[in-house]
Amino acid sequence: MAQLLLQNIQKSFGSFQALKDVSLDIASGEFICLLGGSGCGKTTLLRIIAGLEEQTSGRMRLDGDDLSAVDCHKRNVGMVFQSLALFPHLNVGQNIAYGLEVRGVDKTERLDRARELLDVVGLTGMFDRPVSALSGGQRQRVAIARALAIEPTLFLMDEPFSALDAGLREHLQIEVKKLQRKLGVTTIFVTHDQNEAMSIADRIVILNEGRIEQAGTPTEVYANPQTRFVADFMGTNNIFSPEFAKDGAVMLDGVDLGRSTGQIAGLTGKHTIAVRPEYVRLNAVSKDETGLVGTVDFVRLLGASIETELSVGDRTFVHTMVSDRAPEFKVGDRAEIRFDLDHAWVIPS
Ligand code: ATP
């Protein structure tokens, strides 16, 4: 059991407030991703949980007990950092067993445990290797094994894969997720990469300027961002503020975009709404040009999809389609932009 409760955590560095009233209830065995841009407070929150930093105010409870009252080295936290610090004078096995040695575990038991963990992270047979003879991915595996050797109550990772190439990163994300599920250890993983968070988290917590903007499952934050910041961060792209006419017509700059039977049906007045790029369609411009006409600024291939960016005055809209067909529009073309308004939602102001 390791349920972690954060209550109104604040952290100031002099007059600068790095964390503003962060509250979060993390279930035992849950995999949480703290997601946000540079400087939003992710690492600070992780360091406070680990006991490397003290909060200015607020409380932390681990299974009901006050975590702040427990010394840093007694918190039984396993940590993996981006710039990992393996001990260069120890070999792989000794690195993994180090935390157990500090805890007074006898030699046979700690070396057995180190070998067991080497198998778990896919480095069987590398016990005696010097750490200088490992690749970046292998080093991160050793760091993970070392953090897990102490059977941590909390497993904390701070951008552990950001220095690795994309293929290896994806591979290790999947491995870590499987390992975490198997061990059932409560995990907090810091990242600024929404795709990484989407692929591994049970729940994503999006931080902005020291505050939680939204917390939810990957599907919830992807499909229904509740703030403009989250929508932008999750790549929603098409956010605009049309007028809703009494007859249900959604009007933007005098253009009738159609009606919705979805979440935005029944609105009146002006509201900010969002539509994901996969719910945008591009058509040839009609003769009378009554639709919303944009100019293609950019077309790019993103593996399985093609993204087209269009401008209408000073607004930008984004359309995506699967890349099994050639794009119909190229840079400089004009196209009519249609939104599937049944999939639009309101961004609360
Ligand atoms: P990144 O993704 O760039 O690592 P982050 O979200 O992890 O960013 P933090 O490292 O938590 O951000 O920092 C949050 C803010 O607090 C930043 O503006 C940072 O400059 C500031 N900060 C962090 N540690 C200190 C410190 N010891 N003294 C003063 N300011 C600090």
Structural account:
- The chain is of the alpha+beta class and 349 residues long.
- The protein has helices at residues 42-50, 92-102, 107-120, 136-149, 166-183, 194-200, 218-223, 228-233, and strands at 4-13, 16-26, 31-35, 57-62, 65-66, 77-80, 154-158, 186-191, 203-208, 211-216, 238-240, 243-244, 250-252, 255-256, 269-270, 273-275, 280-283, 292-302, 305-312, 315-322, 334-339, 345-346.
- The strands form 5 sheets. It has a 6-stranded mixed β-sheet with strand order 6-7-8-3-9-10, sandwiched between helices.
- A hairpin with a 2-residue loop joins strand 1 (4-13) and strand 2.
- Helix 2 (92-102) crosses helix 3 and helix 3 packs across helix 4.
- The mean pLDDT is 92.
- Bound molecules: adenosine-5'-triphosphate.
- Residues 13, 16, 18, 36, 38-44, 192 line the site of adenosine-5'-triphosphate.
Order of helices and strands: EEEHEEEHHHEHEHEEHHEEEEEEEEEEEE
Number of helices: 8
**Small molecules held by this entry:** adenosine-5'-triphosphate
Overall strand count: 22
Rg value = 25 Å
The quaternary organization reads as single chain
How would the global form be characterised? elongated
